[in-house]
Amino acid sequence: DAGVIQSPRHEVTEMGQEVTLRCKPISGHNSLFWYRQTMMRGLELLIYFNNNVPIDDSGMPEDRFSAKMPNASFSTLKIQPSEPRDSAVYFCASKLGGLPQYFGPGTRLTVL
Amino acid sequence: DQQVKQNSPSLSVQEGRISILNCDYTNSMFDYFLWYKKYPAEGPTFLISISSIKDKNEDGRFTVFLNKSAKHLSLHIVPSQPGDSAVYFCAASGRGGTSGSRLTFGEGTQLTVNP
């Protein structure tokens, strides 16, 4: 069984560049979550989707961040323009109904 | 406002002994609690959960206890094994609707089990 797949695993970019993180949820799951983990703020929810529809984006830090889920098997988190303070590990998770969330391996983003 | 708190950043125990990880919460709307385990360079892995209608849930070596009046939960690992060394996160979610999907995480506790 394939778990949640994220790409890339590591991303190093320069300030001002556009960054796109990708996520493939577990097949059949109907909810998808994007989290960010930093030393200062821990693990925080950025946005989540139910049935491909964004439900709660109150955790998205600012307009530079956007997320899409064009279909049930794919989601992107885009940062444009990126800043050094965006450096973090970004996790994607998915779940079905009331079951627990299952996390991907994360993307470590470094913005220089 | 940290609604879920894990006050111990680290815990060290001997192999074979009990590990007790603690978590406190402030939001009385939380009614479902989970523990996740995280190894370096991997995503958090679901371990065990408990609903607010229960005060205990057990799965093999792992038991979660919930004290609603104290807004406190704990994870017991017995016996502890070196492979249990990881960061453990406590998480909570609220009742129904959109809040039923949203998890709020604690800061995590690094458990080290020494051989």
Give the topology, please.
The complex is a heterodimer of chains A (112) and B (115).
Chain A lengths: L4 E3 L2 E4 L5 E6 L6 E8 L3 E9 L2 E4 L8 E7 L2 E6 L8 E8 L6 E2 L3 E5 L1
Parallel strand pairs in A: 2-11
Antiparallel strand pairs in A: 1-3, 3-8, 4-5, 4-9, 5-6, 7-8, 9-10, 9-11
Chain B lengths: L3 E2 L4 E5 L4 E7 L4 E9 L6 E7 L4 E4 L2 E6 L4 E6 L8 E9 L9 E2 L3 E6 L1
Parallel strand pairs in B: 2-11
Antiparallel strand pairs in B: 1-3, 3-8, 4-5, 4-9, 6-7, 7-8, 9-10, 9-11
Q: Beta fraction of the residues of chain B?
A: over 45%
> Could you tell me the number of beta strands of chain B?
11
Strand % of chain A is over 45%
Count of DSSP helices of chain A?
0
- Bulk shape of chain B: globular
Distance between the termini of chain B: 38 Å
Biggest sheet statistics of chain A: 7 strands, mixed
Which shape of chain A, going by the Cα principal axes? globular
Radius of gyration of chain A: 13 Å
Number of helices of chain B: 0
Unreliable residue runs of chain B: none
**Overall mean pLDDT of chain B:** 92
Q: Can you tell me about this structure?
A:
The complex is a heterodimer of chains A (112) and B (115). Chain A is mainly β and 112 residues long. Chain A has no helices and eleven strands. Chain A is globular and about 40 Å long. Chain A starts with a strand and ends with a strand. Chain B has 115 residues and is mainly beta. Classes of the chains: A mainly beta (112), B mainly beta (115).
Question: Would you summarize the structure shown here?
Answer:
Chain A has 112 residues and is mostly beta strands. Chain A contains no helices and 11 strands.
